[in-house]
Batch of 3 targets.
Target 1
Amino acid sequence: MSPRTRRSGRERKVNPKYANDGWDKDTLRILRASSESSGSSPDEEQRIEKPENVTQDAEGSFDEDDDASDASDIQSQASDVQTPNEDEDNMSVVSDGHTLGNVPFRTNRRRSATGTGAGVGNSTTTTTTSTIHSRGLAPLNAKGAKSLVYHHMFGPDVEDLEDTLDARDTWLLGRDVTLPSRKTLSIALQRAEQRRRDKGSDSSTNPNFHILPPRLPESIVDLILNRQILKPLEHQELYERYLHRHRPSHSVVLGPFGRQQQYPLDYNFPMDFGWAWPKFRDAEVDQASQTGQRYHEGWLINAGEKINCLAWAPQQQDAQYLAMATRCTSHQRRQHEKEENLRAAFHPSPPYPSAIQIWAFPTKPTPTPGIRTIAMNLKPKLCTVMGTECGNIRAMRWCPSTQMTPSTTTATSTATASTIGILAILSTDGKVHVFAIPAQLTSPVVVALKAERAGLTLSPPGDTVFTTLTFATPTDLILGAADGTVHLFDLSDPDHVDPPRSYATHRIHNTYITSLSAASPVHLAPFVATASSAGDIALTDLRAPAQDKVTVTRACFPARDIHFAPFTRSFITGLDRVGSTRMDTQSATFLSCHHVRQFHVSLRIAKLPDQAGTATALSGSPHHPCVLVGNARGQLHATNYLRKVLPYRRNDPGKAVQAYLQKVCEYDWRPLTSTGNTKRTATTASPEPRQVSQTEDDDEEEYDDGEEEEAEAETKPETEIDLFHGHDVRPGVSRFHEGFKPEKINMAYMPDSKKKGPHKDTGAAEVIFEEEQGVTVLEWNPNPSCAGMAAMGWASGMVRVQDLAHDLE
């Protein structure tokens, strides 16, 4: 008997046959390439493991195997750092070895066997005809080496790191924790001067162009002087039409806590507030002998109306000139016959009158070499008032040039006069007017001028208005418009077309541009940072604005000021707490820093106090890293941003430099009640000896008539209030608090259980302050010898000028 055959117990099935069994591998590869599947053909998997032969030709470009597909390039670009609303054509993240020049390149990043994207170090370049375009570098690992972080953040070359390393060695001392010291300022200026001598006087190779810009060509100064028409103005017409016709007085409360007193402050009259801060209180010792023994020194000026602009003139003289512009009053707006039907935010306003005031602040040398301070024994002087017919003045910028030489006699003048500088003003008529401001050094009285015609008038296109301006160089003016475009004008154009036309126009945003800042060094001049009313901020290279642009979308309030920090090549701006897309648990405003090489990354450098309102003003200096910021509550803070920006060893947090925030002063404003009186009273003495001039006595009757008109204006119904322009500054009382100690900056959220003081359940409510209480403008002095001087303005019309530099060790 034959043995039985052993069979399997598994169920037998028919082997399936497919219709594409006869297709070869090439046909399958074509089908897979045209489909949306992420799978790869067998030949492609083998080619991934095969090394690629890359050779470099004589021109610096690269050749690679022909089998490399363009699809791999597209997939590799998807792993780069992306920003919203950006074109992805020919864009990639560049490594430290690349520079922003016209070098042809193309990146081809491979994927590893696990399917993850390769890093920057694994990228290879291929031949293409496109130009290098960069949107910045991706941030490194938090625990990377400090030397690698410096090269990655600030640049690989010696020129890129020179300013940063020099600032690190100079400005991280304990005495410069929040405000600059005169000793460190002197050392920094001496080092900058030595580097200038070593590298020559050529501004194109001078890394400290932001400290000492080149001289403006005399041909441009002569052109502006010859074209502008300035006529003398009568004293009565000056106050009736261009200045505050009522000349309102203001009361200020000054002094140490618990011993404050109220002092009257007349219109456009400077007052030394240091008299209220003597170090010794002796009734037998006259205050005049305590001039050099006071805690605080500075000047207060009552401008009478909201401060719109403050600008220091860049020049090297004993006297420092400050340009000031206030908001037009309702009386000035009513003087023009044409009715304002369209809002001036996006349409030109009628040319109602306004004024530019030029104040001269005497200075004196200090024991520190090369540093000057305010001469408190000489009062500031209102030397020039120039009346204009161009609406509200929104912004003012001095041409960043060295001191002008005395100009020749013009066709409209009969005597030779020196020139303070070239001043560009932006007004609500939508135009930019450029003037050469004369310096009446020998005139004992205020020189009143009426601007019949500007030296240069830059007009926008017919469907928009200019909203912001800045000087990129002494001859290049950059203007932002209400339609989101940026216009470039060349003041040294040899053709001198009338009216001047922009040589370049680029659309950066889709709506109103609120602020604009240009990088000051020569090799970074094409980089411009802008912010729009939508809250987004953008960095644009004007050489290729369509490709080289980084836009950071932020759901926050528009940034009013952007400051370029030359020490770290960064842009600093404010970030309100509503910038978070989720429900934020803290009501604080931050200062954020955006490096040029990592603009899409926001680094928070300071946190303002809770429930203090948004940041309304910001200012920085080209000579020191101390930043001033003001908020809606009227507080003024200062911090050294280098202590938060410079990298340190992340694995050793104990070696990190601590950052502090210093409250310089706190300003309170309260309106007078209905029973209050706006007249000047003699019940309280002034903090300093003063004499009442004959002019004030003659104007007392006119002042009383103005009070009756103000009382009538206050009785008007609320329906007549202009919602766009707002109301005029109301009569009130101001108070300054000083003497605060620096506090350590803590970016983390602190719950109410750990906060000092009483706990208040505010919920989701927002704190609302009086309009007159907010800080409106801050300005550091741009001159090296007076770099510690700062000017501050509030919406109540109060101006404070103080030397914040100190001699502490």
Note: The two ends are 115 Å apart (CA to CA).
Target 2
Amino acid sequence: MGRTRPQVPQTSKTAAEIEGSPKSPTSTRATRGAPKRSAPPEETESHDDASSTMQEFNLTNDACLRTYSTLSSLQDFTNAFPGNFQEKLIRGALKANGGALPCFLCQKFLISSSGLVLHIRKCRGPPSAESMEPPKPTRQQLIARRRLITAPTITSFEQLKEEPSLWLYIDDDQKIKLLKEYFPDERIECFAISKPGQSCPLLTSYKDAIEHLDSCIQPMYFTYIGDRAAEFRKMDKKLRSRYVREALTTHLQLPCLECGRLFGHRYGLLYHVDRCNVSDEEMPWKCYRCGYSTTRSLSCDHLRQCWSKRDVLVAEEDVSNVMGALGDVNLRSGKSILKGANETITINGEAKPLSELSAKEALEAIIGPENSIVVPKKRRSTARASISAGVIPSSSTRMSITGDGKMRFRFRKADVRAGVSGISEYPKYVENIKKAHDIWMQETAALPYCSRLLDIKPSVWKTTCKSARLPFISKESVGFRIRESEDKNSYQEVPQSCQRLQALSSVELKREIHDYVTIAYCGGPINTISVAPNAMPNDEEVVAIVTYPCETTLVGKDMKNSQGLVQFWLHTIDGLRSKIRPWFVLKSNFGLILNAHWLDRPKSSENDTLIGFLAVATAQGALLIYRLDNTTVSTTASDPKKIPVVEPEPSLILQQPKPWLTDGRTREENAEPQYPPPLTSIAWCTRDEAQYIVAVNAAGGAVIWDLQRSVDAPYVLLDSGWCSPAAHAAFICGFEVALSFRERLIRVYDVRTYQCVLEESTVRTAGSRATTQPRLFSGFFSCQSEYFVGTDPPNTGVSFICTDSKADGFFVVPLANRHELMTWDVSASSQNAVIASCGLDGKVLLSTNGRLVTIANTVDFGFSLLKTALTIVRRRITEPEEESLKELVSKMETPQETEQPADGAADQPKRRATRSYATHEESLQNLWLDIFLNPDSKNLRSQRKLTSLDLRIESLNCVATNYRTRPFVFTGGQAGLMFIRPCVIDGESPLINELYHVPFETNEKPLGKSKKA
């Protein structure tokens, strides 16, 4: 494929040597890569003359086929066309002969031009006398590589009009007979299925009619290309298979009816046609109970009928219930048919209850003792893997031993069957989640704080200035609009329907149905979103947001001397809708703020004013701790330019060790101050007295502070044996922290002993980022792992590693979340265990898996649900069509090296590449976002052609979930826009509960309002 290397033409002498000696040393593997000897002068001159006479290759495909049919030896082939002209000759002949061509030496058919050229040069088989007939460029039916269809029987002209392809499989005598029968006046009308806008003339001769019909009629499969593809999908399966099989007898490959992709086998073609450019609702679906085939949109209706039919059959069964109960389970176990059943069976004139008979005895009584019974072997009663029970089967093939001697069990990826598989177990799972969350709340609220945190008293922060003085207050967001379906139109400017937001302002958008999304513009690329564990007295949630100052370089020119800003917003929930407004902006003088993390501790009483303790990571390497109460900042404003900006002193300042001050060197008086490495990630332990804080610095070390000891001398966890620097930290449960490394490795350390207790480095499981939900799970989520093989574009997934096991090992649970190119962040809701993930593809995926168990779970659940909550597609303006055509033509016309530039050619504009928009100002004028809220938008993608250097404004870098009864997910990224969506799975809807007859009650009032939606 692609380019072919020009081959040195062989002379007649070389061809003779090869022909006479098949085992010549020139064709051996040892001499194939050796340098070739230069040809004699006379041979070189003859080759130059041949090449000079053939500067251009002007043969048509039919001429190539006629030229190829005259070849009979390798010498004729090499002397006819030198170099690349040989492959061009073969390529033209292949096109003229329908895609396949025989070797003129051995008559072996090949379908590739380069493959046939290489085969001819190596082929030594003498051509047989009976197979020397050259191929004729008449019709593609002459390719006798496949078995022809048996001649059909035509009974009426209507049959021939409905299926004209039957004409192709009858002989000429029968064709004339049919024409004379149906057109006795010799005025023949073409009965082929014509294409739109095509008409055939009236024929007045049987001979001309036969020639016309032979060329005009095509196999029935080709008549459905284009607008009739949907009609083809609705046809009977056997009829579709026959049409494809008939078309494959005359064509080596068939195109897809929608996209034109070529297939050489009917099974792959039919499977692709059923799914190509088809919405999720029209995708084929097969019932896993009865095998009925339909579409996904009708799957729920069929499941209702399937369940009802099963109940009717069970109620109406009489004597046949004995045979129906004789399944594999009964025969293998030897148990009774129906324990406690009242039915009886008569055996040898004696009535016996079924409960006293085994399946084997009942079957012998029915079929008679003279017939033998083949009983399947009993299955081995081996223990199954269970996370809730902490059981890892040692004999399983999915169990492996890690380098440190621990057992590792990896589950299979749970199949997501249109969000229906195992959904009846989801309400029970949510009940266990709520029980586990209540237990955690009671235990954590009773825990005390360490003395350093108790010394921090509530305070009131004074306003130093208004938000009008902030550097980003005058910025405007990129345009965005909400869409129901993909817009394939081209625009030469940003559409007028797009909205824009000023900094520190928000808006709520609505779909055609009752579905909403709240959008807020934060003034720059969003780095961190963190929701406070406690709310305001009016149930407003406090959301802390950290942004970058620059869209191109993110951190700006001098991050250590820049001002650090943390935005605080107030989030209000109203059923399925939400609103958000800015509260105040926190300013610090310790350089740029790179991360913010709340201590996940609920307040001990309802009268407590505490909202939470906030840890802030700075570019100067200091960790700042603030206490925020609902009385800390009392003023607020509705005008984005009048938001209060406060600059309080940190309640605690945690410094890193300073080894550079102990090297004995003296610093100059006017020298710039030296700072430790910036802090990029924070983890705060909620157990015990909340005294352990772990932060990862830019040098790749994990700094561990114990607030009960000296805060000036923390322990730096930095091992010389690490293959890469640490990137993120997250506390699992208790005193174990998970450290993820840039080279996709995760280690779990005990902060009390600084010892590694677990290591996970498996490809596509371990990633460079680890997140946790300590309220529910004793494990961590891993993302930013290796790409999955065979996906286009490449995908990355999310895995959950459960570290709590009674056996000396751990479990790995692959989740359904997969993002194109990169998965940036993962967060789990503490209310319903929904895992939210965001990625570079601009999607927010919500999933839940029954294997993610809590302390309240007694069994594992086998369901896996997935939902697309948000899809953002980046769009760009297009150049006018005239300019695009001129540019395309100029790129196709390659100037010759020998041509001299004409007068005035130096003044002509140079050909330019497609322009990219990499700054915020350029993005405002040339890019915009299309927002999709419907779950069917998972197949939508941003325009990637010629835009690899554009600013990835659709990328979502961080995600967070709240702690209220009604869960919401917050996400944001490169565009500086924060999106807020409900963090729920469709399994909570009453429709699913009614479908599976599962009662599900909840004490949550907002859920009751969602029935109308």
Note: The longest helix spans residues 426-445.
Target 3
Amino acid sequence: MPSAVVSSSLSPAKVLLLAVHFATHANIDSLTSLCQLHASTLHEELLLRILLTYLPETIRPDLYVGLLQQVSEKDFQDTNAHAPDPSPVDALAEAEAAKKVKRLHLRSLNGPLIHESLQRDVLSSFLVLRARSIDTETGTSSQLLDLLLPFVHRSSYLCTWISSIVVPYVKKEQAVDSRNSLLQFEALSDAEASIFLLSRQPDMPSTVQPDIDHDLRESFGPWLYNPDRWKEAGPDGGTDIICEGWQELRTWLVSQAASSWPIAVQVLEKWGGIDDVCLSNGLAMKLAKRFQDHCRETYAATTLACVYSIQDTSLECLSRLYNIVARLRVRHAYDEKYESLEEALETLPDLSLHNISTLWQDRTASLAKDNILAPKNLLTSPTAESTRLLLALILSAYILTLHGHPSSVRRVGDLTFLRDTRDQNAVFTKLLWTIEKQASTRDDEYIVWARKRLLWLRGWRDAAASAPQEIDNGTFCAIQRESMDADFLKLMLSSGRMFVAKLMKHHGHSKLLHGANPNKVVLADSVPLGYDLARSLFEDTDYKSLPEETIQEVVHKSALAAFDNATSPDRARGGLKRCDEILRALPATVGPSSAGTKRIRALLKATHALSGYRLVLRAGESVSPVVLRVHSDPISIVGKILAQNPGAYTRLQEFLEMGINIFEAGLPCHSVHLTASSLTTEQLQAHKEVSERRITALCIQAALSEEDFETAYSYVASRLGTQACNASSAAQHVMDDWSWRAALQAGQYVRTERSKKPTHLGTASGNPTIRHLQQRLECLATALRVAPTSELQDILQSFRRCEEQLDSAIKEEATNEAAWDAEADAGRLPGSFDRPLVEEQCLSRTLNASAASRQTDEAPMSLFDLSRATARVAQKNLSIMSGLKSISGDVGSVGQELHDESNQRVRKRDQLREAATGTLVSGVGWLIGANVNPNRTSRGEM
């Protein structure tokens, strides 16, 4: 009997059991034929329940999708060629078949896991349950779409479910091998599902997620299109719209910006938000316009929040951030066209804001992690002002980073809105230092652009075009324009010569010339080297950005900086040469007649004088020029030169010129700064005279230390004596503690075998001892004239001892000459005359031994005048000289007469004059033509 005939005669129980058999063995063709023959028995719901319960999940959906379509359309095709085989149930009795049917326990197509809209659509319910079973049992999520897509348009819910749940799940499962099933994914909350869709592969670094934009476009975006994810807290919608998944995405993006900026930047660059969703496989979904508008606005706010949260300071990151914000402004019609970063660096657009404080009411709260995405946050609200501000901050950060101070957008924001002058100056100073360092390998155009960009940072606009009354709100708003230009002038002056020299060396040429661009140096045949850029910007321009006083101050400070950095005191090279060049860099503004220029030139002369000598202040270290400028007593360096350079004391005039230059440079000469405003012109001149005397004294002491008394004596006689006589009235009131000491030291010098011999005697005594004592007396007399009153007593004691030594030497020479005459008695010779008296010979010899050339009353006026000057000095110090009564018995009567009350004032004056002059005259009476012995007697009788 044909099987078709047999099958058509089967009881309903056996038909049901045969259908279960075919489903269990995945015999889809036989099952289809059976359904055609027994359509009344195997109705749609029963057949779907059999398939759901017994059809293996491993069977590919494309094998039975045709059957499902026939069931859905209730139109089974003629399958006589594939008649079902009833043999599996032929042997069963009807009663046994009925019992087996009762034990089948087919799965229901309804239940709590089926949406209420599918309760009456058994095929849709079957598809949902079947998809879940396949995913749970096999984990082959890739087959789900093969099952579902043919029926995607069967119902609106099924379409939404497939598009917003199954498709995102399948896409994510293909990218990330997770343990979540489709049913578990459906059970996740919106926040949890968002985290799942945004997760990365476990073996991928935290900073890398190359396909994140695809995930958002093909998984997260479609998932958001499910209307069940959107809620409205109020009837008006707008800011009351709530979507946990969308909010979770915004929070995730901000956190990625803070920790893994490449991921956040990739999202912001490549994903356009809710409008950039890929519904593949012919799927189509729409989101309500109010929800789309909400997503567009909040995504723009999220973009701004991410930019503020990124802490990276690389040029790549800042460049990408600039492009993101610039394109956002174009999308929101805040700008007409997109301007690239390169164009912005060239044009430096006007990004100034007049009321910037309203955007930064509470900086800490505005950028706090929990508040940065708040709807009322003015910094992250996508308005024209907030995006303009952020674009200015990004461009500022890029400029700072480009010129050597890496800065994030957040750091630039702090620098801008805190308005801390010290902080801004510190950043600006560091930038200048880096620009100066980089300028050594660049041309002038680099410095010009660096200056232009940094000036732009004051107010985010062209500094020259801004009105004086306008308030700048830029990154360097707390720094004065004049201060910035002054620092740039200082940079140009400090790097002028070094830059040109390196550029010449790099190109192999010796000359440069300005081309068509006056700010760009090109190779050519002739041009003055050095500081033409500074002149073109600050001197040869119609717009004077700096007043002349400021330019002069900057030039002088730069010159002194070059001086301080010099290592050699030679003015023809190194730092001193650059110092001199800087002084001549702006001749029209800083001329040689400037007081500051004169001081620095005097300093250069004084320092250059050191180059001819060996000078070591510390062991193993040669002296540097800055030592002279910062030394508390620079004239003392002359003493060190004299000590380290034998014979240098003979160059007194050079050292005097050095002292004059030290004085004119405004350096301290003897614990008093000569440029002090409290000193008058006369007082300054007095200090200058004292400085000259001090240097003379140092040379005298150096000569004595080298046993050259003759030179020391000549300095005392020709310099100290003359300087003391010609001293101004103001100089007489300035403490001079060096001249009298040097004169006293010379007067106390005792000639030894090592002493240098005089080169000529002139009219002096032929006896070296007497001549030496005469010179010592003259030195002591000079010491008396210039010494303070408190030192006169000690000097007079030295004077008396030297006087006694001179008397003794004269007597000794007279005795020796008398003995010589006695030995060579002329009376023993034939024809001799009578021998003259010995006393007359003694007197004649004594006078010859002295400096007197004739036995007359004529005497050298120098020493006499010297004695009179000494008396004048003593007369000014009556109270001090009253103590001289104890010096010797020769002046004892002076002290006694001072106690006479009736004639006290007149007798004091007369007696002190006689004491001072009498002492000197008695000591050198031989020189003024007086008789020594009678003079002694008269002095003793006083």
Note: Residues 3-102 form one domain.
